[in-house]
Design goal:
Chain lengths: 378, 292
Amino acid sequence: MKIYEFQAYEIFTRRGIPSPWGEVAKTSEEVKKIAEKLGRPVVVKAQVLVGGRGKAGGIKLASTPEEAYRAAERILNSKLKGILVKRVFVKESVSIKEEYYLGVTVDRAQKRVVVMVSPAGGIDIEEVARTNPGKIFKFYVNPLLGFKSHEANELASALTKDKNLVKGIAKILSGLYRIFEEMDSSLVEVNPLVITEEGSLFALDAKIIFDDNALYRHPEISSLRDLEVEDPLEVRAKEAGVSYVRLEGNIGCIVNGAGLAMATMDLVKHYGAEPANFLDVGGGASSQQVGKALDIVLSDKQVRAVLVNIFGGITRCDIVAEGLIQALSKREMNLPLIIRLTGTNEEEGRKKLKGIKGIFLAATMNEAAKKAMEVVKS
Amino acid sequence: MSILVNSNTRLLVQGITGREGSFHTRQMLDYGTKVIAGVTPGKGGQQIEGVPVYDTVKEAVGDMAANTSIIYVPARFATEAIYEATDAGIKLIVCITEGIPTLDMVKACYYVNQKGSKLIGPNCAGVISPGKAKVGIMPGSIHKEGNLGVVSRSGTLTYEVVYNLTKNDFGQSTCVSIGGDPVIGSSFIDILELFEEDSQTKAIVLIGEIGGTDEEEAAKFIHLKMRKPVIALVAGKTAPPGKRMGHAGAIISGGTGTAEEKIKTFQKFSIPVAESPLQVVDLVSAVLDERD
């Protein structure tokens, strides 16, 4: 789960990570007032849950309250990378002498938490990793011992020789690690951490991503979620216990299992059509689950055909077929439905579905995907 | 032979009194797996499907000489169950549970490894050596004994592939579902290593998906260390970046973990990549013909 910069900033400030003072605003008037109150140049930053805001024109410098007002006028309620900007974060502007990168994340291959620093701050760290990996310094944390202060000192020494700065950066690193661990994060990042002309350290950006699997033990984090910007169908699916991601195409997919769902989407594309969604109905593929899945997929008005791909394993195909018939009997279905059932008792399952109006039965995934493409293109 | 589980497997079920635990205990017994004990704290003394239930893993190991454990414990207690099995000296732990926090797994993987045990999963379908033992939730009936090793991050996609293989008379030595989480006990390489040494296994099918770089590491390993042929399948070519595709680990983040990159890496090392689950059969058939 992602949160906004201004929310991460609050967490940072509480943990003593030095950041320029700032306030969040929803209108240009508020922005102007904040700038007046501060009486110094400010940076107006769009609050959206995507990266690369600067390049997309979502971050503007303003030396007067009037300029801040005008910047807010341009950013607020505009679309940034397709997302409506509802809030801006107005922050005190600081002079920049150096820019560093600091981050904590999980290294999947090493199965460890890794604390990273780089002197190449202010730019996309993935870009640095690709073009200049030698400029990223990493420390892998012992899972049982945590991140020790002398380890933080050593890592900070990779950035500068100035002893005071090393001490300051090490303290920030320890703070970031503490946030990471205590709040079950998957990423805590400062990019950039700046050294000002006066020699002070400031986190100019704040980014935190939380581990969805750990939200159950952090109710305070769940309340930071902004449901308004999430896809309403994805929110509904989550409530129904169905794993769903909306895509651009017009072939609705209903599949049991995440891997099989992705493989089905890939095959739809392979035959020249576009999947409308990823959908995993979850275990059992009962009539209730399939019914919920159908409702969600059919709510997407782009959908022109529905492809159901179910592997009947321990749940036998004849039972799955009965579940499908039940789910269909309860709702209006005007779109072609391509069903592919495989696994235990598949013959019996197919027999039950044969002859029902609007249903096309396919023997293989390939046949189903091809059929789906044909019906939407005809 | 075969890997990880066989007729010497003496299985302990952690969470045996739960809905999932008891259901799959029956399924595994029906398959012929030696399920010899179960554990649910506070419920010792009962029997589930004729299997004695203990309060602790230590008691179950002491009384019944369990050497393998399977975990069907809810996410918030699952790592506790992993630690308990490890401390009782269980050498192979298979964790089916989905939804365990990643940082809990970072600690658990480290501890299990330190103690010299092996962990499969979490968020996996388990391990089956057809005709010998089934330690998992996969449908036993779709498998057939043979000489193909299968290793996968997914559940039903593996069933799909195995089902097609069996229908075309390609049996399996062992099928290992390693799990769909970002941090898992055993990676592709750990399992490939075992298949390479296993006399029953002649070729391996590797089923990967978006997220992380486990497939890329596996490709390098296959190229440098393996003599047996490997066929790959990668799911998620149509997955958008930044979105979790069902599995906690199936996410393209910061440009890494794309299906394209994984496929490119396999191809760079001349490892055949199937376009679809069905095509796996053709590719397997081709590499086995070559070897004959």
